Automatic annotation (TrEMBL):
A single MF term (Gene Ontology): hydrolase activity
Keyword Lyase assigned: no
Domain Glycosyl-hydrolase 97 N-terminal intervals: 22-271
Protein name: Glycoside hydrolase family 97 protein
């Protein structure tokens, strides 16, 4: 292996600058860390061209002197790793972690001054770095007021970015923007961009634990600052003693799918801390849910109450018959009457409504081999939830529930907590307080062998590796926006998510709406702006170990042939490959099922989706095992399909294929193709 880190003395200006270098294993990515002008900085090149220009590193603190100017590199330590690890569930079973690392220590030239180490890891698909503040004098308590990390994009004047705004009232639930990079204001991560030479970059973070979420603030054209979402008192981060920050990640690839085919976020997280997690189960579910979103049912009590014993039994029967593992029931507990959005203080997490017999349903589910999936909506009143959380999980554990969907519906900045003095404070969903609150919930759930699917979450940073019961989350506009959002999700939404939000981890999007005409078709109503084939393709394109069949049972029974694909498709994969795509335009995924339960582990699946443009895509089937034959069950847009007025035109056919074949996929406007390759 080549030398991966060197300490150089270079003459720069009037001072000698020290430099440390670390290269990716394939040598295409090179990080240079420098103390030129006594200012800690890093720069990244990709294929010998600058990608990130010299960018500042450092912090400002409330009481301690800043880690900013006057610092020199005092120590450099290098390491190389090439290992593999196994996921209990995931996009692939075996993950390779191959990287070179350099840990660079900075200090001032003064006795007993503070030191800071910045650890860089260079992978073939990008770079991660984090700060490490050791136990040292004056740092028993640290309040970070500002992180100074910059990301200075080279070639910024000719770059395009895909992003959603940060610190907005609607958290992460915005339509994605496509703009010139230089026009981006405050943006969330994963933040994806492309320069005019085709280099794709995505900035995000990994292992966000006990720290504020980072958003990107463009301070000068092309230069983004790590902007930490503060506490209600204005402090960014509060720490005791030694600490490490989350990893700042910069994925770099020369194609859009290169960003997707990367495990850098998972690799930068700590291994599983929960031990045996065989109780964490991927699977598919249906639920008493969509009816509330399209107003045919209610969460609250009354005539249209969705969560009744009778309706739940009907869903359990349906689930058992068609191979679903669980039935989500929302609106089962006291607190939904009146305006639940504002009255979160009155939610009980243990008291069912009178017409919901949880004990009877636990028994019924056991007979049928179907589990109840729990639901805890907080309306952002986290102290009310915290007070009841242990009992709430105990009730669900007793009721054979192994998965709970949580909800934190509240405007951004308006999460309510009661502090130690009994005073109400209002926090962001992505500040340090809530980062800790979400993880507290996941860890407590683990004690009850319960997995968590967080809605209105903190963004995903790969913590599923460490806590595999954090099984999915929302954190972007999901299907629900098609019921009532203004506007509903546009046709490009899915190919946008694939290259942005989905880089972070699984999303509980809740695909599979079969009746798009609940308000009428066309382009000016609330409805999924897709074809039926595209709804099927979502099960392959949008990775999640739990997938909902979100529509009402009667709408599946009305289209049994299309419904077959949802019954067949697994949610746990041996391997996943993004084959082709462009950000916001289209994406094609192939995934091989993982052996578990009724899945043999031999079948492959393909999902392709497009934006508002119809397109023809050639796909080589060379991902299939050579010499094997597969029966391809192809669900594609019919000849006359187009999303606005003819979304249901679906053409289903079967043909035998092998690795030598090519398929020509014809996608309608906002269309898709879903294929099961059944091993013969
Ligand atoms: C928002 C969630 O995303 C949605 O799925 C849920 O139905 C509502 N909150 C109510 O909890
Ligand atoms: Ca939501």
């Amino acid at each position: 292996m080549r030398t991966s880190a060197l300490l150089l003395l270079a003459f720069a200006g009037n001072s000698f600058a020290q430099t440390a270098v670390v290269e990716s294993p394939n040598s295409q990515i090179k990080v240079t860390i420098s103390d030129e002008n006594s200012t800690p900085s890093y720069a990244i090149s990709f294929k010998n061209k600058p990608a990130i220009n010299a960018s500042r590193l450092g912090f400002e603190f409330k009481t301690q002197a800043a880690f900013r100017d006057g610092f020199k590199i005092t120590h450099v330590k290098q390491q190389s790793v090439n290992t593999q690890w196994q996921q209990p569930w995931g996009e692939r079973q075996t993950v390779t972690d191959k990287h070179n690392e350099v840990a660079v220590t900075f200090a001032k030239n003064e006795p007993n001054g503070a030191t800071y180490t910045v650890r860089f890891r260079a992978f073939d698909s990008g770079v991660g770095f984090r700060y490490e503040v050791p136990k040292q004098a004056g740092f028993d308590q640290t309040h970070i007021t500002k992180e100074l990390t910059e990301f200075a994009i080279n070639n910024n004047n000719n770059a395009t970015a895909w992003w959603i705004p940060a610190r907005g009232w609607n958290r992460y639930e915005y339509v994605y923007n496509t703009t010139a990079l230089n026009d981006v204001p405050l943006a969330h991560t994963p933040f994806t961009l492309k320069t005019n030479d085709g280099t794709h970059i995505s900035i995000h973070e990994a292992a966000l634990v006990d720290y504020a979420g980072m958003v990107l603030n463009q301070r000068r054209p092309g230069t983004f600052n790590a902007d930490l979402t503060p506490w209600s008192d204005g402090i960014a981060v509060k720490k005791q003693g030694a600490f490490n920050t989350p990893w700042r990640t910069i994925q770099i690839a020369d194609s859009a799918v290169g960003l997707v085919n990367s495990d850098i976020i998972l690799n930068l997280n700590e291994p599983n801390k929960l031990g045996d997690v065989s109780w964490v189960k991927p699977g598919k579910y249906v639920g008493i849910w969509w009816g509330m979103h399209i107003n045919t049912q209610t969460w609250g009590s009354g005539e249209k109450h969705g969560a009744t014993t009778q309706t739940t039994k009907y869903y359990m029967d349906f689930a058992a018959e068609y191979g679903f593992d669980g039935v989500l029931v929302e609106g089962w507990n006291i607190g939904w009457d009146g305006d639940w959005f504002f009255n979160g203080d009155v939610f009980s997490f243990t008291q069912p409504y009178d017409d919901f017999d949880i004990a009877a349903l636990t028994q019924y589910g056991k007979q049928k081999g179907v589990q109840l999936i729990g639901h805890h909506e907080t309306s952002g009143n986290v102290s009310n939830y915290r007070d009841q959380m242990d009992e709430a999980f105990a009730l669900y554990e007793k009721s054979n529930v192994s998965q709970v969907k949580t909800g934190y519906v509240a405007d951004g900045g308006n999460i309510k907590r009661i502090d130690e003095n009994g005073i109400a404070r209002h926090e962001w969903h992505d500040g340090q307080f809530m980062v800790n609150e979400y993880l507290y919930n996941v860890k407590l759930a683990a004690k009850h062998k319960i997995s968590i699917n967080t809605h209105e979450p903190i963004k995903d940073t790969g913590l599923r590796r460490t806590y595999p019961n954090w099984i999915a989350r929302e954190g972007a506009r999901g299907q629900e926006f098609n019921a009532w959002g203004t506007p509903p999700n546009p046709p490009e939404h899915i190919p946008m998510l694939a290259f942005t939000r989905m880089l972070a981890g699984p999303m509980d999007f809740t695909p599979g709406i079969f009746d798009m005409g609940f308000n009428g078709l066309g382009d000016d109503t609330n409805r999924p702006q897709t074809t039926l084939a595209k709804q099927l393709a979502l099960y392959v394109v949008l990775y999640s170990p739990i997938q909902m069949a979100a529509d009402l049972p009667k709408n599946y029974l009305a289209k049994p042939d299309a419904f077959q694909f949802i019954q067949d498709v697994p949610t746990d994969w041996q391997q996943s490959i993004a084959l082709d795509g462009e950000v916001g335009d289209f994406i094609v995924f192939a995934r091989k099922e993982r052996k578990r339960d009724k899945y043999s582990g031999n079948d492959w699946y393909l999902g392709a989706v497009t934006d508002e443009k119809a397109r023809t895509i050639e796909v080589k089937l060379d991902f299939l095992e050579k010499g094997k034959k597969f029966e391809a069950h192809i669900y594609q847009d019919g000849k006359n399909a187009e999303w606005k007025n003819n979304p249901y035109d679906l053409d289903i056919k079967k043909r035998v294929v092998s690795a030598n074949d090519k398929l020509t996929l014809k996608l309608a406007t906002s269309g898709g193709t879903a294929i099961r390759f059944k091993a013969l």
